[in-house]
Amino acid sequence: MAGGFSTGDIVLATLRGRLQCIRVAVTETQARRNAVQPQSAVNAPRIPGDLEAAITRSQNYLLGEQKPEGYWIGELIVDTTIVSDSLAYHHWNRKVDPVWQRKAVNHLLEHQLPDGGWNIYHGGPAEVNATVKAYLALKLAGIPATDPRMLRARAMARALGGVPRMNTFSKLYLALLGLFPWNYVPTIPCEVILIGKWFHVNFWEMSSWSRSMLVPLAIINHFKPTRKLPNSINLDELFPEGYHERDLAMPRDPQTFTWRNFFLWLDKLHKFAELWVAGGIHPFRKRALKKCENWMLERFEGSNGLAAIFPSILNSIIALKALGYPDDHPQIKRAERELKHLEHETETTLRIEPCLSPVWDTAIVAICLAESGVPPGHPAMKKAADWLMAKEIRFRGDWQYKNPVNVEPSGWVFEFDNKWNPDVDDTAMVLLALRKIPTDDLRKRDECFQRGLKWMLTFQCKDGGWAAFDKDCTKGILEKVPFADHNAMLDPECADITARILELVGYEGISLDDPQVKKALQFLRDEQEEDGSWYGRWGVNFIYGTWQVLRGMRALGLNMNEPWLIKARDWLESVQHEEDGGWGERCNTYDDPVVKGQGPSTASQTAWAVMGLCAFDDPHRPSLQRGIQYLIDTQNADGSWTEHETTGTGFPRVYYLKYDMYRNSWPLLAMATYRNLLTRTPQGQAPVTPGRGDLARAV
């Protein structure tokens, strides 16, 4: 006995100490093997070991996910509507694979809510379009109407208003199967494609995704290729008030003279004229149909299907068949292959993606790895740079109609191939990546970067912001047309994309006195919410918008102690979860901003909030430290994070996306941003920034 300890205790303690030394040595060796840059700054504060370990695990995980060609891609997880649409299409096409159908049924039943309905985002309530579509798909697949799951679905569909409350595109698909009268489907006239830019409301004033959906739908609307279902299958039980006109017709505004009522009157005029096409009341119909067909076929080239998105590809197949193209026509086969590429089929179930996201995911992951210290010479980074540069689009696509400036074509898209529609958001993210990742051909990289930057900057809208695809695509009158109820007719400028572009130009050293920068800053000031937050158009939601603005302002070199920025910081802190230190927000904030910033904590949204707080250069702020600890504590052993919530936005209130790569990429960038902030801040010394309450005194 010595001091109360036995010899065995001393030996055991010695062994434990040696084991800990071995673990530390192994960790350090592994870090060197993965070529992560060491912290070598003089007098830099000590980085917490759990933070370094979490960063290393995350790096290793993401490096292991890279495809041999050099890109990263995560699954885009969406609601059940596209599986339902696919099953209905196969029945319309009279070609149903029973094995495929069984897997589709399994997918739908797995996602049915306890109340019988189907939602459009994780944790959300039942939604009428998703519920009716799933009910129809199950009925087509032979699930008996007396099945308890069908009875619950029927009750929920009726409670939501049934078929009459569905949107225009959903009703059109029902009309193809003889389940809804064409007379009450809003007309999508082919002639709209003939209207030139000289007219205030014309084809090019619609968003790019609406154009790609509406052109084939206009062809379908003309031919009305209904194929009635066998065995007298119908949806009569989902018309709560029967087929009365007051329930089937589009609702009118209570005021007599409104644009909506005008377009509803015009819709009736179109329907009357369609009864007399042969008599010449629609003298331009034949020409318009041919132009729609050629427009569609032209945009098949250089793309993974029309616009490389599920709705447009499916619509284009139906349109070609309506035009008389045989099932074995090369264009039909080609489009069907593109649809098949979006499917994930397992032994028992299947999922369908709305599109693929390799460019977007690759740019984000490359930024995260570079910021976190993966060295410039790492082979994975070089492969990513080369792959991204190869994806630059040197083609003057449809963007030229809204932005006819004399600029060298450039830009990037979301998908593998979609040369007609390079977009501003993906281009900004790729440029943020290219400036950080290495290449053996620096001249090529620099030329590519400068082309993309100049091209992107020409898309600034009149009010100073940037939109996703087009310039000044904001004519609100288009939202009044009867078929505009999918909430996607316009492509408005938004704070999140504008701030991302300002982040990029800030890193490039563009002056705050630059006219474009000044105009963009004013746009962001005008868009700020009363509580200090910003609306997030392409991510859920106010956490996304607020983070991106704060990060952008920090990159620009603004004084982050300005009251309007402190107000945004205080809002972020006000919605941090006390119980776990994380952040979360659900898609219901698009319906009701009262619940903004509320929802289960997620890795991606916590990462966004952490990066927003990092913009204030205070690594010692308790809210920031708790957010970092949340990310460390919730990381899986393999370096990934688990996330079930939907944090991406397609069309607010209509369609949402879960980017599966978000949960594993953004947390790495957040931890790297925090670590880099620590190394810039002398140990034990915190920057002086206003705290809560200082804003009121400043004002």
Describe this structure in words.
This protein is an all-alpha fold. The chain is 48% helix and 2% strand. The chain is built from 25 helices and 5 strands. The chain has helices spanning 7-33, 49-65, 81-92, 98-110, 128-140, 148-159, 168-176, 208-223, 245-248, 259-274, 285-298, 310-322, 330-341, 358-371, 379-390, 424-434, 442-457, 495-507, 515-527, 542-556, 563-574, 603-614, 622-634, 662-680, 694-698; strands at residues 76-77, 343-345, 350-352, 648-651, 655-659. The protein is globular, with a radius of gyration of 28 Å. It starts with 6 loop residues before the first helix and ends with a helix.
Annotate the secondary structure layout.
Layout: H1 7-33, H2 49-65, E1 76-77, H3 81-92, H4 98-110, H5 128-140, H6 148-159, H7 168-176, H8 208-223, H9 245-248, H10 259-274, H11 285-298, H12 310-322, H13 330-341, E2 343-345, E3 350-352, H14 358-371, H15 379-390, H16 424-434, H17 442-457, H18 495-507, H19 515-527, H20 542-556, H21 563-574, H22 603-614, H23 622-634, E4 648-651, E5 655-659, H24 662-680, H25 694-698
Antiparallel strand pairs: 1-5, 2-3, 4-5
Helix pairs in contact: 2-24, 3-5, 5-6, 8-11, 8-12, 12-13, 14-15, 14-16, 14-24, 16-17, 16-18, 18-19, 18-20, 20-21, 20-22, 22-23, 22-24
Could you give a quick summary of the protein structure above?
The chain is mostly helical.
